[in-house]
Amino acid sequence: MKAIEAGHMGLTVSNDGVNIRATLSQLGDERRDEMVKLVKKTTEAARIDIRQRRETTVKQLKDAEARKEITEDDAFKGRERVQKAVDKANKDAEAMMDGKIGELGE
Question: Domains in the chain, start-ordered, CATH in brackets?
Fold first, then answer.
């Protein structure tokens, strides 16, 4: 219990003899702003990862096309499917970010 209080994590600790309860206090404006920045930073990192994976996949498609393993049409269709997947992943990441920011605002 003392360690939790000494950690200065914004937890209020109570002991009823059997259970130890740690409750979170309301987020202050400053802490909320920090959390929103963290959510946005994490979302941007996810977008970067998505773009890198897209670039890797498109490069693999181009290489396969150059080696005549797939046709030009197959490569084009593959790039379209990859772009649709990227668009969906970015949309999902954006929705998750908006939801989390909404939760932090409560």
Answer: 28-105 (1.10.132.20)
